[in-house]
Design goal:
Elements (H helix, E strand, L loop, with lengths): L1 H44 L3 H34 L2 H6 L5 H14 L4 H13 L4 H14 L1 H10 L4 H25 L18 H32 L2 H8 L2 H15 L6 H7 L5 H10 L5 H11 L1 H26 L1
Length: 333
């Protein structure tokens, strides 16, 4: 009788999770579509062409990004609920120098958002994985997973070199940061998370993770789309020309913008594509920096590993990510 109740409860949770994912995603797409139709019309009725342009950019970014955001959060929630960190730890070599590139490549086949990668990295450390390898995974998982790369290919159609450039620059940054930590990192800088109560697993954990990740990341997507649209419309063309005419100014500007906007990695390619006035290398730097260094990640890392670690790690990661974006962009773009 007890087993029958458990099966029935799990079945109800599965059905509820499916309904939330499908209906919630469809509702967001429908709302964004309606807004995309009514927004420009309302703006034109008010005789404000700049506002109409703002709505056009905003809704284009949101409508394109929502399906990938939903897919990414579903996969991320599934990994958190059904894949144990112990299983991930067994796949890594014990030698940190070898474990770092393996952990970096593992990020390509284990999708996850930026928010999910921080607790996963902490859990790997608790289970004996070398911090350098865990940090490489933390940086690579949200930056080079299949959902992100497919979204990038759609955001930049007919430009496969942009997808390859993002893959190489992001993976290179993750591996270099892992090796730098293995060589120069000090134990007193890193507050290794202590043991905590076991996390729930299974269908209920999947539903909880899906609700949290989708709503949390969806809010940042909307804010990022609004900020990108405002940037495109509000900044005078004369000011923009100062930066767009020089890669040396455009790259750090968009790299800093990525830190502030906090756009989810599953959707940041569409924001980067909307910044069409900037050179390709600058937009690549935006996509490399964003999943690795932004304000929400800084807060998450400070809370998990300590403020001393977060300040040092984020600063060096930003510099390495910008350098990787410039080098790969100069080579491929």
């Amino acid at each position: 009788m007890q087993n029958q109740r458990t099966v029935g409860d799990n079945l109800r949770v599965v059905v509820r999770a499916f309904v939330y994912a499908v209906v919630g995603g469809a509702a967001l797409v429908a709302i964004a579509t309606v807004v995309s139709v009514l927004g420009p019309t309302l703006a034109l009725d008010l005789y404000t062409p700049p506002v109409a342009a703002w709505w056009t950019v905003f809704t284009a970014v949101v409508v394109q990004g929502v399906p990938f955001l939903l897919l990414g959060t579903v996969v991320s929630a599934a990994i958190g609920a059904f894949v144990s960190e112990r299983a991930l730890g067994r796949l890594l070599p014990r030698n940190p120098a070898l474990a770092v590139p393996v952990a970096g490549v593992a990020g390509a086949v284990l999708p996850g958002c930026e928010c999910a990668s921080v607790p996963v990295a902490g859990s790997l450390m608790r289970r004996g994985v070398a911090p350098a390898a865990a940090l490489a995974f933390l940086l690579s998982a949200p930056a080079i997973n299949p959902v992100v790369l497919v979204a990038t290919s759609l955001a930049f159609p007919a430009r496969p070199e942009m997808v390859l450039a993002r893959l190489l620059a992001s993976l290179g940054t993750a591996v270099v940061m892992g090796w730098l930590w293995a060589r120069f990192g000090k134990e007193e800088w890193l507050r290794t998370p202590g043991r905590e109560a076991p996390h729930s697993t299974g269908v209920r954990a999947f539903l909880t993770g899906l609700q949290h990740d989708f709503l949390h990341a969806g809010g940042f997507l909307v804010l990022g789309a609004a900020a990108a649209a405002t940037f495109n419309i509000a900044v005078p063309r004369s000011v923009l020309d100062v930066f767009t005419g020089s890669a040396w100014l455009a790259v750090p500007l968009l790299a800093l913008l990525a830190v502030v906007l906090c756009v989810c990695s599953e959707a940041d390619a569409f924001v980067a594509a909307s910044l069409s006035a900037f050179p390709a290398t600058a937009r690549l730097a935006f996509m490399v920096v964003g999943p690795m260094v932004d304000l929400k990640l800084l807060a998450l890392q400070a809370g998990t590993f300590g403020r001393s670690f977060a300040a040092r790690f984020a600063t060096v990661t930003w510099l390495v990510a910008v350098a990787a974006g410039v080098l790969v962009g100069w080579w491929l773009l």
